[in-house]
């Protein structure tokens, strides 16, 4: 008599991917797109770049966009901060050697290369907290381009903030 025993095993693996500017994990197809925050329309994703995050966030103090998942509220490694409230209007600005600029009116939502160029060539130090619908490009200290669109604004002296949709890239 022969006895046969059967066993089933299940394994789970977690893979963490961290893209670094200046390094590519492989070719990116030309003309690929990622959804534009909130618009449902595509944003160009230039060759060599990957989308690292695309979602809605609340900015109440500061944000670090140098990671695959943005970090909010920290007092260190910040790229974007609410700098204060004057005359009932809050102000945002770049921090930690980041660059920030509004996307020019009439220009389509930019891809990573154009967004980085907008941030570094049209950058401003402090920007009055924008109105819903305003669009910005940020280039982080480490070179990551980030596009965000303002959804709502809270101009409270006690707790200024804004709800934003953010699209970030890494690569090149």
Topology of this protein?
Blueprint: E1 33-35, E2 42-44, E3 49-59, E4 62-64, E5 71-72, E6 80-86, E7 89-94, E8 99-102, H1 112-121, E9 127-128, E10 135-139, E11 145-154, E12 161-171
Antiparallel strand pairs: 1-2, 3-12, 4-5, 4-6, 6-7, 7-9, 8-10, 10-11, 11-12
Instruction: Tell me, rounded to a whole number, the average pLDDT.
Output: 75
Distance between the termini: 65 Å
Shape: globular
Q: Kindly report the spatial arrangement of strands forming the biggest sheet.
A: 3-12-11-10-8
Low-confidence segments, given as residue ranges, are 7-35
Radius of gyration: 20 Å
The main sheet comes to:
5 strands, antiparallel
Helix content: under 10%
Helix count from the secondary structure assignment? 1
Q: How do the helices and strands follow one another from N- to C-terminus?
A: EEEEEEEEHEEEE
Q: Helices and strands: which structural class?
A: mainly beta
The tally of domains stands at 1
Q: What fraction of the residues are assigned to beta strands by DSSP?
A: 35-45%
The count of β-strands is 12
Looking at this protein, list some descriptive labels.
1 helix; 12 strands; 172 residues; five-stranded antiparallel β-sheet; 39% strand; single chain; mainly beta
Description:
It is a single chain. Helix content is 6%, strand content 39%. The protein has one domain (49-171). It is globular. It is mostly beta strands. A five-stranded antiparallel sheet has the order 3-12-11-10-8.
Quick summary of this structure?
The protein has a five-stranded antiparallel sheet with strand order 3-12-11-10-8. It is built from one helix and twelve strands; from the N terminus they run ββββββββαββββ. The longest helix is centred in the C-terminal third of the chain and has 10 residues.
């Amino acid at each position: 008599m022969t006895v046969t025993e059967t066993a089933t095993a299940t394994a789970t693996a977690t893979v963490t991917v961290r893209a670094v500017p200046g390094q590519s994990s492989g070719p990116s197809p030309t003309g690929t797109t990622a959804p534009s925050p909130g618009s449902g329309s595509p944003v160009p994703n230039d060759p060599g770049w990957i989308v690292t995050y695309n979602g809605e966030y609340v900015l109440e103090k500061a944000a670090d966009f140098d990671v695959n998942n943005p970090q909010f509220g920290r007092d260190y490694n910040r790229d974007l901060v609410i700098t204060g409230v004057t005359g009932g209007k809050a102000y945002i600005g770049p921090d930690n050697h980041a660059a920030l600029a509004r996307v020019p009116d009439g220009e389509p939502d930019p891809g990573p290369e154009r967004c980085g160029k907008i941030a570094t060539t049209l950058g401003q130090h402090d920007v009055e907290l924008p109105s819903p619908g305003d669009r910005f490009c940020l280039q982080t200290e480490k070179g990551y381009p980030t596009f965000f669109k303002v959804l709502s604004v809270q101009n409270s002296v006690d707790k200024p903030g804004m709800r934003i949709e953010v699209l970030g890239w890494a690569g090149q």
